[in-house]
Specification:
The chain has helices at 33-45, 66-74, 84-87, 131-141, 173-176, 178-187, 227-233, 240-252, 270-284, 304-313, 342-359; strands spanning 22-25, 49-52, 76-80, 90-92, 96-99, 103-104, 109-110, 125-128, 159-162, 195-201, 218-224, 234-235, 256-264, 293-299, 327-330, 336-339, 363-368. Strand 1, helix 1 (33-45) and strand 2 (49-52) form a beta-alpha-beta unit. The chain is globular and about 55 Å long. The two termini are 28 Å apart. Strands 4-5-9-10-11-13-14-17 form an eight-stranded mixed beta sheet. A five-stranded mixed beta sheet has the order 2-1-3-8-6. It has a two-stranded antiparallel sheet with strand order 7-12. Helix 9 runs parallel beside helix 11 (342-359). By secondary structure, it is an alpha/beta fold. The chain has eleven helices and 17 strands.
């Protein structure tokens, strides 16, 4: 682990940048102002294949096999117009008051991918070009909501807007610029003083973010995990020391910060591995003035639909998805989700609650699920 003194604003060269091989721009998105910024960034990144499509349909994405389709889609950025259904903010408890999507799809290769089964078609990353309309939801929904706004525990956050439900916005930021635009506009007070953005990332490309006038109205949360879990299942992402270095950098730059410890898995020696993770985080944030640090803890789970998709993407995965060893949890609509047995959940929850407070007392636990 790099020492806290070494992890400063000078260590901002990202260890992992996604550069798509193909950029497809729909006809409806072609003339929008933000599309020009995306094209500029893609050209700087060295993307040679940038095409404006004759229409708005994304075609030619499927290969001869599911693996070929997956590989091609993961190397493609589509610049599209967010449909009307994506422009209305949606409640997203327990994380935030509302969800606003800058994009859909993710370039990473996490074998437990949360998006599996929830997005239709090949896993192409779609960046929304009508950014003004997307961010307009902040203006219409500021002052509304019940997860943070008006609550005793989190009322100081104001109305919160989650920017990363269907993507990792930092993972695509170098070729989109959408996140910097959102942070800057909210930071300037354009949408009022009582709003806050939130996003979660497994990447470390924070060099541009630390230069922004964010007004302390954005919370940058880093998805972190035990070394065995991260190294085995989180392909295409920044390694854990790099994420913690980025955590220190944005916290030093005055951002509110957070930890998304997820998905927790009871791997062999899980207490020792997660204990080492908490100790590394404690070292990473040591000595930071005015630190505002939260933690959200999420256990691994899957659905029959997500399992089917994940096995088509990663047929040789070692991810535990043996339904016989899991407990079923049904939603009010009859959907089935597999979660760890009650005893396992109880043991992990008790350990994390106690150890988070002991090893990382600066962190405020928002929820466990």
């Amino acid at each position: 682990m790099t020492t806290a003194q070494e992890m400063d604003l000078t260590t901002l060269s990202p260890t992992r940048l996604w550069v798509p091989r193909h950029v497809m721009i729909t006809r409806a998105a072609a003339d929008l102002p933000h599309t020009a910024e995306i094209i500029r960034r893609c050209e700087i990144a060295g993307v040679d294949d940038i095409r404006i499509l004759p229409g708005n349909a994304l075609t030619g994405l499927r290969g001869a096999t599911e693996r070929e389709t997956y590989a091609s889609a993961k190397n493609t950025l589509a610049v599209v117009v967010a449909p009307p259904s994506a422009l209305k903010p949606q409640p997203i408890p327990p994380s935030a008051d509302w969800r606003i999507d800058l994009a859909k799809g993710c370039p990473a290769h996490c074998q437990y991918c949360y998006l599996a089964g929830s997005l239709q078609g090949p896993p192409v990353t779609r960046a929304y070009a009508n950014l003004d309309e997307v961010l307009g939801g902040i203006r219409t929904h500021a002052g509304r909501g019940s997860v943070t706004r008006g609550t005793i525990d989190r009322g100081d956050e104001g109305t919160t807007f989650e920017m990363s439900c269907y993507t990792d916005p930092l993972g695509i930021e170098s070729v989109t610029g959408s996140l910097a635009a959102a942070i800057s506009r909210v930071g300037s007070g354009e949408f009022g003083s009582d709003v806050q953005l939130r996003f979660t990332t497994k990447f470390d490309d924070v060099g541009e973010l630390v230069t922004l006038d964010h007004g302390r109205r954005t919370r940058v949360r880093f998805s972190v995990n035990a070394a065995e879990v991260a190294n085995r299942f989180e392909g295409g992402t920044a390694r854990m020391p790099a994420r913690l270095a980025a955590l220190r950098a944005v916290a030093t730059a005055g951002y509110r910060v957070g930890l998304t410890i997820a998905p927790i898995m009871p791997v062999p020696d899980w207490r020792e591995q997660y204990g080492a993770l908490l100790d590394d985080i404690s070292e990473a944030v040591a000595g930071i003035d005015d630190l505002d640090l939260t933690a959200e803890i999420i256990t691994h789970r899957f659905t029959p639909a997500s399992k089917e998709v994940l096995l088509s993407w990663y047929p040789r995965t070692k991810l535990d998805m043996d339904e016989d060893l899991w407990s079923q949890k049904r939603s009010k609509f009859g959907g089935v989700k597999y979660v760890y047995p009650k005893q396992t959940m109880t043991e992990m929850r008790q350990w994390f609650t106690e150890e988070l407070e002991r090893r990382l007392p600066a962190a405020r636990l928002l929820y466990w699920t």
